[in-house]
Amino acid sequence: MTMVPVLIDLAQKLSKDKKVLDGLSMDRTSASYKMTYGLKRTFHTQTLQSIREQPFSLNIDQATSNNKKVLSVLVGYFSKTEGWVVVEHLAALELENCKTNTIFEALCDLFELNQIPWTNLVSILMDSCAVMRGSKNGLERRIREEKAPNLLDIDGDVCQHIHNGTKKLCAPFDSWVEDLFSAICTDHKYCVDLCDSLAEVCNLLGIEITAPEHFLSHHWLSAYNLAVSTLRMWCAYQVFYYAFIDKAFKADYWPVVNGVFNLEIVSLFVIYIIKCKQNIFKMTI
């Protein structure tokens, strides 16, 4: 990624040279060949040369791509050319499974194939799951015992710690807020009429509508992102769902809706239209 500004500058200069552009082939095969055996090979060679000569850190994480288990390996080191620490892509290793032994063997093969000395490895950033950081059979412990005894303990992924802390903090609330997000998403995901009706209310209230998103329980920022989006449309949701409240409870919630109607941006004409549409919503949906 550190070469992106240089490549952009090169592309801007080449765009002014018509002779160069006329002789430059960018069809799929040619472009792929140049990227794979040209730029990619050059960058990869430079990265390997750097980490063979000086200390470096790894950032690894497993993921699934096209039903295949892949281990992404990033490397961070101090670049003498740039004058600061750079993070570059080292490899994407396809795995049979995500067990400790499989990941350990894949990393050993990577180091051996590229002649990378384990003595230069300073630390590894990984998530806090048992496979990676288990006290008995974790990947970090095995690397420290068999390959890099001086490996620093930099703890696990900060984001995962925040996720675990957030989950613990919200546990006493019985997922009230998260369930609200999921319920709103389900309402509008499977019913086009509800989406259209909500869009009409948002339009009348001058609120930009965005489709309700699904809450991701494993993503600690998901609750925050959905809360921001939901609060922005909160007035529209209050007016919209008031139409579906049982008559016996409408009086209890009327002050809430009336508070929306008393906003300066809401005219009497808009209030009249919304009240008419509330009756239509309940009859047609």
UniProtKB/TrEMBL annotation:
The chain crosses the membrane at residues 256-274. Keywords: Membrane, Transmembrane, Transmembrane helix. The keyword Membrane applies. It comes from the Eukaryota. This is DUF4371 domain-containing protein.
